[in-house]
Write a structure and sequence with these properties.
The structure holds three protein chains of three kinds. Chain A has three helices and two strands. By secondary structure, chain A is mainly alpha-helical. Chain A has a two-stranded antiparallel ribbon with strand order 1-2. The longest helix of chain A is centred in the N-terminal third of the chain and has 18 residues. Chain B has three domains: 290 residues, no CATH class; 109 residues, no CATH class; 60 residues, Arc Repressor Mutant, subunit A, CATH 1.10.10.410. Chain B is built from 15 helices and 16 strands. In chain B, strand 12, helix 3 and strand 13 form a beta-alpha-beta unit. Chain C is 38% helix and 13% strand. An eight-stranded mixed beta sheet of chain C has the order 4-6-5-10-11-9-7-8, with helices on both faces. In chain C, strands 1-3-2 form a three-stranded mixed beta sheet. Classes of the chains: A mainly alpha, B alpha+beta, C alpha/beta. Chains in contact: A-B, A-C, B-C. Strand 2 of chain A pairs antiparallel with strand 9 of chain B, so a sheet runs across the interface.
């Protein structure tokens, strides 16, 4: 039984802002399916009372002193922009309500 | 029933406030926190989410978060975790916001809000579900110049500024309760110097969740979320509009749909921005670039020890120590600068109640007229105390002193010198007062007669006339005494 | 064009004595890089003018008697996923076309401060996702020992550059074996330090809790010297260990008597490993025993879950780390999009290669509502068990020895149509990243004309013992002296 369907792949792709052609989506679905099948082995492991790893090497929390550095030259800030207007980045219009997810 | 409550439904409101923390640099980046700069003039590679950058947590932001949690009686968690909230939006440079999810820095507090059940009712506790830290997003610039165009400009100056999200329990039952809660919360944040909490400047943002249910029901109704509310007034109005809308839907037999709503102040109506059929999948997971925030008990106690006395504590103390009424105490503890000013003046003068009267009447009016907050004026507690003492001793009249107030507030100065400069010494020359009294009685024969016939209140009117005649400089006590004598002595 | 097969130490002496100049070294390195570019394709880009200028400054400093360090003037290469001010960084991806960084990675800055001369950026698998350097937008790098074979990946370009004698050392990055496996395929030394040893500031993130910068060199001593240079706490990296750079070279005294070497039985099962590899590794162990080490069998019982654990965690973190590539602030943006969503989708779909897309999809799925507990959280729990395996093992031994890879360099194209097969070749290397422990691969023999790598794993912060064993092994053998033939 397929673990991940083509529809699920499409949904996940949308979440990740990727658009896959039909052929690619089909292929990815079967590849992902194989991989997910493989990772199912983890369900065999008894992890009762095992803490998930937060960090491989436990460290004390580093805290940065609240001091402001001089900001980046605005020219440099937008130097790599595919599209810009003055010192602002330009993108296709954002529709209210477009945000999030 | 407080303002905006619904006659047939129980209104349930919960508020989410985002407040900007007063730090020099951003939450995870050393870029300066600044306002009003041109786009992208206050950024660092971290703010731009350039390839290879990493976040570094601001110590002061943590301190301010702990301070807020303590001031609102929350449990401060000695272990909290930063999590990534993943979504795509151009003002979110990393494609995720660093926030806190399953393990926030604080949970389970409350704030005491006065006046929810009526002006004389005791304060009521509004619960807080949680407080957590997160970074602000940048801005989409919707300039007038861009309206009608098919592009948006993005400015990341604001991206990464530290925010505290404060979530209330759904304990509020009307729009006016919501506004009272917000005012109290803002006062607390200002009291502890955590935030300027100025809603117009965007330091203090509020999203409101509202649902209705039949009175007596325990289950919560479907709620909608109101966003982008720019002032306390808007919060109230938006809630009123949404309550009305939901009530109409329910009374028609319909069902309220979960949605995010916007409020239009011009039409006073709410409209759907986005339906929330599917909950947004933010794929939260602990940020692997950050170590869990581990706090020691000592760290928390150090912050607790540095907390200033809070409004509610001061208010109680003012009533206890200075004998003020609950209302006066509340007014005078409205802000820390005001409260400090009061206490210093009371100490210098010696009569707290008198000081309270002066501050809540004359000084307050003067400040309102000049549109100033106490901390922005040139008047000092010593000066106010000195002014009051001049009146107490009879050197000047209360009325003259009131004239001096705006000058002292705007320019400062020595009240005694100012009084002499402007010739506002009280007139105590008996001859001058007698002449004035005689003249007033002569000109107001009818009223004088009425007084003699038992209408004691007329004396006040006559007194007023004498005071006018002497330019307000005669001692009221002397005038009253002389008038009464003359009126009694004269026969019609 | 004569290849630079000398070690860093040898070159450093020659520079100090004036036998050779930094400009000569840089010129030779650049010429060799260009000459081999069409065959090996080790480099994504070179910076000849700046390199020569920096080399000239190094020479001037030496003439004044003020060298910045023993490495002043040494030519070096960095992987194309480490940023450098004013230089392009592409991570072998279309989506970063045109990106020029305004800042420099800490590890690279420390090299610059020591006077090392970066001659260019090496080819890699796109965003470090791969084990063969075949997933690069500019085409594959080839193995200097056999051009029809891969150099391994994802740091294949850096491994090939050192193996072919273009530079004496190169920086790479290792998330699941991306330094050690190419080192093994190319017959050079490749070390991944303890997680947090070397700052990740300026390393383009693939999987944040697993990535580490490391080095390729021709000898263990060189690796020690370079690691000393680039390690040490960095306040810009919150996951960096709050310790200064370790002293490693003093530990290389060639003495391994009494050292206990652990052999994890799970790594020596015949199924899935080329018997020639196992044989070479056993020979290496015999050599260590002759040197006075004790060999003991140990167990790492959760080994068979390592790949699954790795791929769940790595792809989840990657899916989030790669969300910033959206065409808004830098890199390539798709043209002609009619709205924002279309701009995002087209930019990312056109900009990312297949393997990257596959991993983003898997990672997004693994974190999505309903699957987080079963996949991501579960994997992090199994990770804790894997770490526990190593902690226990290091209670019974000083270092662990394994093959670096179950095979020698495979042919180009052999695994590109079977992603899972590609993933399974990381079986011996991923555990070290999951546990955060350091690991080094050193050449230990040849099999059918291709190098075999021996992997040494040490406890956290145990780079000194690792390099001591590696150095002792080198002193007694001559595998590192081999050079590929037939190159331009």
């Amino acid at each position: 039984m397929a673990r991940i369907t083509r529809d699920e792949v499409a949904k996940v792709a949308a979440l990740a802002r990727l658009s896959l052609g039909d052929e690619t989506a089909e292929r990815m679905a079967s590849e992902l399916d194989q991989i997910l099948e493989y990772v199912q082995t983890l369900s065999q492991v008894d992890t009762t009372d095992v803490e998930p790893t937060a960090h491989a090497i436990p460290l004390p929390t580093p805290l940065r002193e609240d001091r402001a550095f001089p900001p980046l030259d605005p020219e440099l800030a937008v130097a790599n922009a595919p599209e810009r207007e003055g010192s602002a980045f330009v993108v296709p219009k954002v529709i209210e309500g477009d945000e999030e997810g | 029933m407080s303002g905006g409550a619904h006659p047939r439904f129980e209104v349930v409101i919960g508020l989410e406030v985002h407040t900007q923390l007063r730090t020099e640099s951003k939450l995870f980046s050393p870029a300066p926190v600044s306002y009003g700069r041109p786009p992208n003039h206050s950024v660092h590679p971290i703010c731009l989410a350039l390839p290879g950058v990493l976040p570094a947590l601001n110590a002061r932001a943590v301190e301010l978060a702990i301070r807020t949690a303590l001031a609102t009686h929350c449990k401060v968690h000695t272990r909290s975790v930063f999590a990534r909230k993943n979504y795509f939006y151009p003002d979110l440079p990393k494609g995720y916001q660093i926030s806190q999810y399953e393990e926030p820095i604080a949970t389970g507090g409350w704030i005491e809000v006065a006046g929810l059940d009526g002006a004389d009712a005791p304060v009521r506790r509004v619960g807080l579900t949680r407080i957590h830290m997160e970074e602000d997003a940048g801005k989409s610039i919707h300039d007038a110049a861009l309206i009608g165009s098919d592009v948006t400009h993005i400015d990341l100056n604001r991206a990464g500024i530290p925010l505290l999200e404060i979530v209330s329990e759904p304990d509020l039952r009307s729009p006016s309760e919501a506004a009272a809660y917000l005012r109290t919360l803002r006062q607390i944040l200002r009291y502890i110097d955590v935030s300027d909490a100025d809603m117009e400047k965007g330091h203090f943002r509020c999203d409101a969740n509202v649902s209705l249910r039949r009175p007596g029901a325990t289950a919560l109704g479907t709620r909608t979320e109101l966003k982008n509310l720019n002032s306390f007034r808007h919060v109230e109005m938006a809630l009123e509009a949404e309550i009305e809308r939901q009530a109409e839907v329910l009374e028609r037999g319909g069902r309220v749909q979960q949605a995010t709503m916007a409020f239009d102040p011009a039409t006073r109506r709410t409209r759907v921005l986005r339906l929330k059929e599917n909950a947004d999948d933010y794929r939260y997971f602990p940020d692997p670039d950050l170590i869990p925030l581990l706090l020691s008990e000592q760290q928390v106690e150090r912050v607790r020890a540095s907390l200033p006395e809070l409004a509610e504590q001061k208010c109680a103390r003012f009533q206890r120590e200075h004998g003020l009424s609950p209302y006066d105490a509340q007014q005078l503890t409205g802000s820390r600068p005001l409260a400090d000013f009061f206490e210093k003046t009371a100490a210098a003068h010696g009569n707290p109640k008198a000081v309270a009267n002066w501050m809540l009447r004359d000084l307050r009016e003067t400040l309102a007229a000049l549109e100033l907050e106490i901390e922005a004026t040139r008047i000092t507690p010593q000066v106010l105390a000195a002014l009051m003492t001049l009146v107490d001793s009879g050197a000047t009249t209360a009325r003259s002193a009131r004239e001096l107030l705006p000058v002292l507030v705007r320019q400062g100065g020595d009240p005694a010198a100012l009084m002499r400069e402007r010739g506002l010494e009280a007139v105590s020359d008996a001859g001058v007062i007698e002449a004035a009294v005689a003249a007033v009685i002569a000109e107001n024969a009818e009223n004088a007669e009425r007084y003699r016939n038992g209408e004691e209140k007329v004396l006040n009117f006559l007194m007023g006339q004498v005071m006018r005649r002497t330019g307000g400089k005669a001692s009221p006590a002397s005038v009253r005494e002389l008038l009464a004598r003359k009126l009694a002595g004269k026969s019609s | 064009m004569s290849a630079v097969f000398e070690t860093l130490s040898e070159l450093s002496h020659k520079l100090a004595s004036g036998e050779v100049s930094a400009v000569e070294l840089a010129t030779a390195a650049l010429a060799r890089a260009e000459a081999t570019q069409s065959t090996l394709h080790a480099f994504a880009g070179l910076r000849p003018d700046r390199a020569r200028a920096e080399a000239a400054q190094a020479d001037a400093r030496r003439r004044r008697g003020e060298p910045r360090s023993p490495f002043d003037g040494i030519p070096i290469a960095i992987k194309d996923n480490m940023v450098q001010t004013g230089e392009p960084t592409t991570c072998a991806s279309r989506i970063l076309e045109g990106f020029v960084s305004p800042y420099t990675a800490t590890a690279v800055a420390r090299l610059e401060q020591a006077g090392a001369v970066v001659i260019g950026r090496t080819n890699m698998d796109e965003f470090a996702m791969g084990s063969s350097t075949e997933h690069s937008r500019s085409g594959p790098t080839r193995n200097p020992w056999r051009l029809a074979n891969t150099p391994g990946g994802s740091s294949g370009g850096s491994a090939a550059a050192v193996a072919a004698g273009i530079v004496p050392a190169a920086l790479g990055s290792d998330t699941g074996g991306s330094i050690r496996q190419p080192a093994s395929f190319c017959g050079v030394v490749g070390i991944k330090p303890t997680y947090g040893r070397v700052s990740r500031w300026g390393l383009v993130a693939f999987a944040s809790s697993l990535d580490q910068i490391g080095v390729f060199t021709r000898s263990a001593r060189d690796a020690a010297g370079l690691l000393e240079l680039i390690s040490g706490h960095d306040p810009f990296d919150s996951t960096s260990i709050p310790e200064p750079a370790p002293e490693l070279r003093p530990a290389l005294d060639g003495d391994v008597t009494g050292l206990v070497v652990g052999l994890p039985k799970e790594y020596f099962l015949p199924a899935g490993v080329d018997p020639g590899v196992l044989a070479a590794v056993r020979d290496a162990m015999a050599e260590l025993e002759r040197a006075g080490a004790k060999v003991r069998e140990i167990s790492l019982p959760h080994t068979r879950y390592a790949i699954a654990t790795y791929y769940l965690i790595a792809t989840a973190e990657a899916s989030s780390n790669l969300a910033r590539y959206d065409g808004v602030r830098y890199g390539r943006r798709a043209s002609g999009a009619r709205n924002l969503t279309e701009m995002y989708e087209r930019t990312r779909s056109e900009g990312f290669g297949e393997e990257v897309k596959r991993r983003i999809l898997l990672g997004t799925y693994v974190l999505s509502a309903g699957y987080y507990d079963a996949y991501y959280r579960k994997a992090q729990q199994v990770r804790t068990l894997l770490r526990g395996d190593f902690e226990r093992a290091f209670g019974a031994c000083d270092v662990i020895v394994t093959p670096t890879s179950p095979e020698v360099a495979f042919e180009l194209g052999a695994k590109t149509s079977d992603p899972l097969a590609m993933y399974l070749s990381d079986i011996y290397t991923v555990s070290a990243n999951l546990a955060g422990i350091p690991g080094v691969s050193i050449p230990c023999g040849m099999l059918r004309g291709l190098p075999v790598g021996l992997q040494l794993l040490g406890p956290a912060l145990g780079e000194a013992v690792l390099l001591r064993v590696a150095d002792a092994f080198e002193r007694r053998t001559s595998h590192q002296a081999r050079r590929p033939e037939g190159l331009p």
